[in-house]
User: Which sequence fits this backbone?
């Protein structure tokens, strides 16, 4: 009993540390890839090939002075980055990143690589996504600054608009898989058709996957939907008045949200940790690969596409994406009933 | 040993808290928040009873209560906005035109 | 078992304390944030009651939508904080009813607790019915769906109508009346 508690705790700690390292890796990857897309070098001074750049960034940020605007509401000003970061980490708790493993025989019995196997896991992800709106709104309000407030309001309305399409594309996957647990959905994608084609849901639901990724990019406030943070228009949007560690928390939250959206997309559409040539206990390698591909896609989109204007963004969310998601759900449900599969 | 009583007492305390908020506060938005507290207290009692009777109906009624609460909050807040535009105040004591 | 009791007391205390603080705050923004804490504690209580679906619905709809609406309205109206009036005449007129209100709320709480006590005895109701205990939430969601769409289908459809009416009503009520058009 105590062993299980320790194991659970250890797993949670492990995931936490890995997410922090993933955020650091993504900082580096983003800058290097941005440089590659723009035909320049990127960071290459700190450490070999600039690999220690993110750590240098973190150390620099931690040593900066922490400012607080005069009229800011103290409690809310401090709470906002905490809420953002906490929600970003919490959403990853229900993502399975591997099959059962015994860590090469260290443990007496196999454990599932999963912090919390909740039976309503998909809804938990959705719930935490809807909670992360608060971090942004509070940041904008508590900063007592025009730019922050405008950026926060725009960002919040963008997030709640795209949440609906996000949820509907998730619902279509639920209909296919017949289970609300993420692990159940991943297991429904094991195996192959005709021995070669993997049973990934992306092949059954291409539109759903596109809708999910688009809504996910909008949810995480990344380009081309990053108007609320647009440097040219709004200084820095809702985190204008934040400096040092609080600023780092917002960025951490943003990168980890990206990782979470990619991880959920992998689990729901790309088959999670299932892949050829590797036994199930090493499935986390496949998971890592698939998540990395999606994160690369995120970064690629950011540095390639121009930014949407705010009204275009809202028009797209409500008048294009939402009807597409509804049609997708209805078509999926109809096919499931008709084909009886 | 947590029994049904425990949950019902928590629900009762929450309901009284919400009622106190409606009686005592002079800010229309806080009054609406207190109404939400009362609705939640009722939800807790419903789910507790549903579990006590071993039926799923408690949860379903909660589902409807939450939906109705959402609709009520939306319309209530729209009213608050309209009132605020009229009188520039959120104190319910300023809206006394119909009082004798 | 002891762990469950610990969780129950912790979350129940959190919910009650947060609600008491909600009605005591002067700044409506703080009230909304404390209410979020209270609702999160209530969601945890629902999980303890074997109702994870209701818990998640509570978070998604109540804290994720309704309270965001409240927050937006508070921010857009720049809701002023309540002031306690200083002059003596108004003081009596404000504080008298307030104290009476507080006493009435206390009496309500006592009455409700007494009602529960009288109905189920001081020892509390016997342990929860073991009858249809649902252990897996998946099957519970499935059962909720089945019952919802068969026994409560009419209520479900009427609820959708209610939501549409509320949406239309909210938009019309909050719209700015333009002088030129018919509003």
Assistant:
């Amino acid at each position: 009993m105590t062993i299980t508690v320790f194991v659970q705790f250890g797993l949670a700690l492990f995931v936490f540390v890995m997410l922090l390292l993933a955020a650091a890796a993504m900082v580096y990857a983003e800058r290097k890839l941005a440089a590659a897309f723009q035909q320049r070098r990127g960071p290459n001074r700190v450490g070999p090939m600039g690999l220690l750049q993110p750590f240098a960034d973190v150390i620099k940020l931690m040593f900066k002075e922490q400012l607080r605007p005069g009229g800011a509401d103290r409690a809310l000003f401090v709470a906002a980055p905490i809420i953002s970061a906490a929600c970003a980490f919490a959403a990853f708790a229900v993502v399975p990143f591997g099959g059962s493993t015994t860590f090469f025989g260290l443990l007496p019995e196999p454990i599932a690589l999963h912090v919390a196997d909740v039976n309503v896991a998909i809804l938990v992800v959705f719930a935490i996504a809807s909670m992360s709106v608060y971090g942004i709104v509070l940041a904008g309000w508590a900063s007592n600054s025009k730019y922050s407030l405008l950026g926060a309001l725009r960002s919040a309305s963008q997030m709640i608009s795209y949440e609906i399409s996000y949820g509907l594309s998730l619902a279509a996957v639920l209909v296919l898989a017949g289970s609300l647990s993420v692990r159940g959905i991943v297991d429904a994608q094991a195996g192959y058709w005709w021995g070669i084609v993997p049973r990934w849901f992306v092949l059954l639901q291409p539109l759903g996957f596109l809708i999910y990724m688009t809504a996910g990019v909008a949810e995480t406030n990344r380009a081309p939907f990053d108007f609320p943070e647009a440097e040219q228009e709004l200084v820095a949007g809702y985190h204008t008045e934040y400096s040092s560690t609080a600023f780092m928390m917002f960025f951490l939250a943003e990168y980890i949200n990206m990782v979470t959206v990619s991880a959920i997309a992998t689990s729901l559409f790309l088959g999670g940790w299932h892949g050829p040539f590797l036994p199930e206990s090493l499935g986390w390698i496949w998971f890592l690969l698939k998540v990395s591909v999606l994160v690369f896609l995120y970064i690629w989109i950011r540095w390639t596409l121009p930014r949407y204007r705010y009204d275009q963004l809202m028009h797209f969310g409500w008048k294009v994406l939402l009807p597409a998601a509804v049609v997708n759900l209805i078509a999926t449900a109809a096919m499931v009933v008709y084909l009886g599969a | 040993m947590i029994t049904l009583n425990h949950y019902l007492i928590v629900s009762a305390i929450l309901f009284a808290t919400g009622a106190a908020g409606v009686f005592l506060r002079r800010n229309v938005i806080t009054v609406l928040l207190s109404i939400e507290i009362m609705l939640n207290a009722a939800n807790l009692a419903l789910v507790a009873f549903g579990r006590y009777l071993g039926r799923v109906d408690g949860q379903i009624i909660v589902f409807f209560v939450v939906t109705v609460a959402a609709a009520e909050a939306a319309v209530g807040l729209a009213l608050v906005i309209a009132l605020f535009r009229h009188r520039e105040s959120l104190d319910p004591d300023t809206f006394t035109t119909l009082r004798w | 078992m002891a762990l469950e009791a610990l969780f129950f007391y912790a979350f129940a205390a959190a919910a009650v304390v947060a609600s008491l603080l909600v009605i005591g705050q002067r700044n409506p923004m703080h009230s909304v944030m404390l209410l979020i804490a209270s609702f999160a504690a209530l969601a945890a209580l629902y999980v303890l009651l074997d109702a994870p679906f209701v818990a998640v619905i509570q978070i998604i709809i109540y804290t994720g939508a309704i309270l965001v609406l409240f927050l937006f309205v508070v921010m857009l109206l720049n809701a002023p904080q309540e002031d306690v009036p200083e002059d003596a005449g108004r003081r009596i007129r404000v504080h008298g009813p307030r104290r009476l209100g507080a006493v009435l709320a206390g009496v309500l709480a006592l009455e409700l607790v007494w009602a529960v006590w009288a109905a189920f005895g001081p020892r509390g109701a016997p342990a929860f019915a073991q009858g249809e205990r649902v252990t897996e939430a998946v099957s519970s969601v499935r059962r909720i769906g089945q019952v919802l769409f068969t026994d409560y289908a009419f209520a479900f459809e009427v609820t959708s109508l209610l939501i549409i009416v509320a949406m239309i009503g909210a938009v019309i009520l909050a719209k700015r009346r333009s002088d030129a058009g018919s509003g």
